[in-house]
Structures are given as C-alpha cells and as structure tokens.
Amino acid sequence: MPVSRTLLSLVSSALRKSTLIAAEPAAKSEGNLRWRNMSLMVRSVTALGLGLALTAVTGCGRSEPVEWQASALVRALPEKLAEAESEEGEKNVGEKLVGEIKNIVRENSGTYLKPKLLSEGEPDFKRELELKLGQQVYMKRCVQCHGVNGDGNGPVANSLYPRPRDYTRGIFKFTSTPYGGKPRREDLIVTLHRGVVGTSMPNFRLLPKKEIQAVVDYILVLSQRGEMEYQLAKEAEASEELDPEYIPELVADVGGRWKEAQASLTQPLTPEPELTQERVALGREAFLSKGCSKCHGDDGRGHTKDNIGKDSWGHATRAADLTSGMLHGGQEPIDIYRRIMNGINGSPMPGFKSALQSEPETIWNLVSYVLSVSNRRREGKAIPAGLLKPYAEPVAADASAKPAEE
Question: Which end of the chain is more exposed for a tag (fewer CB within 10 A), N or C?
C-alpha cells in the first residue's frame, strides 16, 4: 500500500533531527570517530524504529486485487433460504444458489480482469482493449461515487444528495427512449458531456472522445452484469432453484432489451414550433389542468404534499422545483419534450404520451411554459407564488382541550 505523505514527512523530519542531534558534538571536533559512529547509530536506530512503525500501520503485503463483488441481494440468499431444502433433501440451498449465480454471471459478463458485454458475447482482442480502457477511465474518474460494481456505493456516496446512480438495476433516468426502456448508448454519452446540473455529477466534455466511448461501454458492462445478477437473485429467492433452461432465456432477454433501445428513439409527434408567449400562457393552463401541478405545485416550485416519494432504488425523491433553472435531464426543448412524453425512469414522474397523444400541440405548450418558468431567475424576473400546499394535512384542534393558562 502507498505510504501517506504525512507519514513520509514524519520519517524525513525524524531522520533530520536525529542527524543534527548526533552531529552537534562532532561539529566541535571534526575527525572524532566516536561521535561519527554515534551519529550513524542514532540515525540507524531511528530509521529502524520508524520503519517498524510504518510497517505496523500500512502493512508490508500486497494490496488485495480489485474484484467485482456479489450484490447484497445475492449475499442474502443463504439467510433467506435457511429453511429451504432441495428435491433431494439437501440443505444449504441458498449457498448453492449463490455459487450458481456467480458462475452464470462470470460466464456471461466476464470478470473484473477480463470484462465483456453480455449483449455482445465473447470480445475479440480489439474489443478487450477498448473495455480495459473504459475500465481504467472508470476507476480513475467514476469509482469514487459509483463504486467498483457500479452500484452507487462508492466511498463518497453517503455524503451526496441525490445519491450516485446505481447502474446494476439497468435503470437510467434521463433517456430518449419510451418509459421503462433502456437508454440508447448516445444518451449516456450526452450525460457525460453535459453532466447532471444540480447534482454532484460533473461533465466530462474535456475527455478525449475515445475515452468517453470506452467508459460508456464499460458502464454498459456493469449495468448488464448487475441487471442479470438481480434477475437471477429474484428468481432464486422465489423458486428456491435456478432452472438451467431458464438461464439462456434470461440472458437473451436482458441483452435483447439493450439492443432494442438503439432503435427506440422518441421522436416528437409534430415539428418543434416557435415557442411564443401565447404558447407559454396555454402551457400554464395545461400545467394546471393535466395533473402537473399535483406534484410540481401551481407555481412549479414543488410545494405540495404529493411532492415526496420513493424511487426504484428505495431512496426518497421529490418532484423538481422547475423554477430553480436546474433541469437535470437537459435544458433544450427536445429534452423537456421527452421528459413529458416518456416520464423519468425509476422515479414517480410518469409519461404523458397516452394522455396527450391526441393533442400534440399541448406538449409543446407545456415545454414553452417549463422553459419560461425555469429561466425567470436567470432573467431576474419575479416568480408569482402559487398556493402553498402543506406536506401533511393540519391536525384538527381538539375541541375538548382546555385553553392554556396565562
């Protein structure tokens, strides 16, 4: 393990001080062999003592190699299935299933040292190099937040809100595909280029294109691996076994949905019009009548009792304060259009495609209104306050309660 700068500075400081202490008498009588020998002895003892102390603190062995770890859901199987028995009467069903899941995951997604995309099969040499480059970029720039497995449990994750994305469920919020679908590869590239404003996710637009492409591929490796592992763990827990005939079907299903996403781009129902003040006014009417204000509030600030819920990862989440000017999924009209049409995966935000398909101009009106509201702070305009709805209904006063004494 690398020795910290603090420890190294302590060693250097101690050695310098010991040299000065031992050499001080020698300065008065150069050539005095006795003092020179004492100086050497003091320095050696000091260095030896500090060396032993550093060894105790940092260790002298090699650090453990990085590996992908089984998910918490998989690790919990032995406890959850402690009472289960196989058809042959064997116990330890959970531990056996953990081993089976690990083998299936390794066969289809490779290992940390040799990763592969489940949706592509065995990589050739060129592809191996691309995935290894993506892994290097990820371990340098992403692992601190997203973790080695891509499960959003990096070293700093607990200090961040919202938490870093957990890729292992195969769910990504900001996509150009219909609700519930996988993201297109281009969606992940766009996210890396612009970051996610209002969160701890920065942009990486200064990285070389080759590194951006490579790290996106590695993120896909982690996501497909994690999704397959999740599905296997759920099946194992429910059935207390893994049918060998089920595995190829599951692998094909996971990989197939990622491939389908590439051809699932959501296109506007009508061309983008000029976003006028008239459309802003019509958009506000739709905002209040189509259900948007239920969570976002009459003024777009999100001050409603319904503005709280859980996302697909089990974390508390709120509808966006649209007036903040920080639209996480992008600031362009087409980005907002797709959020309205598709909803936001993994969150309580639904899509309005079915509700608004017969009135496509209403979607552009809503886009106009959201852009108008979100830009007011930047333009220095006052935001008219809407009706503030409490998060909880007020408790009615008890009529039988006695008034407080003065």
Answer: C
Q: What is the DSSP string of 170-234?
A: ---SS-SS-TTPPPPHHHHHHHHHH--TTSS----TTS-HHHHHHHHHHHHHHHHHHHHHHHHHH
DSSP-based three-state secondary structure for 115:
strand
Cβ contact 311:166 at 8 Å = no
pLDDT for 308-345, tens place per residue?
Answer: 789 999 998 888 899 988 899 999 999 999 999 999 99
Residue the block writes with tokens 């970029």: 137
Q: How far apart are CA 351 and CA 344, in angstroms?
A: 7
- 256 shares its domain with 303: no
**Is 0.85 topped by the overall pTM?**
no
One-character DSSP codes across 17-31: HHHHHHHHHHHHSTT
Q: Are 76 and 234 in contact (CB under 8 A)?
A: no
- Structure tokens, 112: 């940390």
In this structure, the answer to whether residues 76 and 26 fall within a common structural domain is no
When pLDDT is cut at 50, 70 and 90, the band that residue 402 belongs to is very low
- At residue 7, the pLDDT reads 45
Phi, psi (rounded to 5 degrees) for 317: -145, 155
**Residue 162 Rama label (left phi>0; alpha psi -120 to 50; beta):** beta
Express each pLDDT in 233-262 by its tens digit.
999 999 999 999 999 999 999 999 999 999
